[in-house]
Design a protein that fits this description.
Layout lengths: L1 H15 L12 H10 L2 H32 L6 H35 L3 H14 L1 H36 L3 H5 L4 H42 L15 H8 L7
Helix pairs in contact: 1-2, 1-4, 1-8, 3-4, 4-5, 4-8, 6-8
Length: 251
Amino acid sequence: MAAAQYVLIVAIVSWYFTENERTRGNFSICRGYWWLFRYNLGSVLFGSFILALVWMIRVVFEYINKKIKSMAGDRPLPRPVQWLLSCTRCCIDCCHRFIKYVNMNAYCQVALTGESFCVAAMNGFILILKNSACFVFTGGLGGFFNLIGKLTVCVLNVLIAYFILDLGDTKVAKDINSPIGPLAMVFVITYMIAQLFMGMYTTCATCLLHCLFADIDICNQLNYDQMVGRNRPKEMKSIVKYLSKPRPTSP
């Protein structure tokens, strides 16, 4: 999963910095695999290892939680123990989500700068803190479109399956008493597949923000007009103009 995410990030980075007004960018998946195995395999493995440690902690916690409940038998657990288990589960889940988010931003910085995982993770975290509003807005908007996309695909597939079962002249359609069970399975399987594919849009949006801010920093270092940029997709210029507007200050 981390390797696929990194390959997608490299393809976006290579497209961004080869795109300009005259030519279209080079979106290369092969370059992503080459960079992965030639330069940054260790960083991807390290990020995956950290995530695997968190998963292992979750597995151990759930095992201990199951043993505690089995020891209690039919008796309910004391309230302090229930609160402690719930708080622990919540903290582990938050840590898991945080590590996944840090990994994605670290891979973006690894692809942009070629730094090691730890340095890239720190740079990505600092960049998020400096531009937290943009990242929060992009993450929320991406999550909203992901949800809409997944639900749309699921509903369409369920409708197609319903018409096949209701109007089909097959033996399976005739032997089914109620379509609710098959339609529920279609919805679950479709949602799982759509989850895998729609997750790429969140990665794309986050990586584009990293590329944009890196592009602005390069322009500032070279004393180049950051409103124009040297290699910048034309679709990003309106975003740069919006970010460069002065914000009203409170009295």
